[in-house]
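User: What would this chain look like folded?
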Amino acid sequence: TIVNYLTEVITITQIWRGEKDVKVAKC
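Assistant: Here's the prediction, encoded as structure tokens.
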């Protein structure tokens, strides 16, 4: 779905910026 697509894009973007940002975003 579109929501899942956006979630994946955001996750990839966060990973691209740094794992620390990903952990904060998931929390």
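The chain is about 90% helix and 0% strand. If you want, I can go into more detail on any region.
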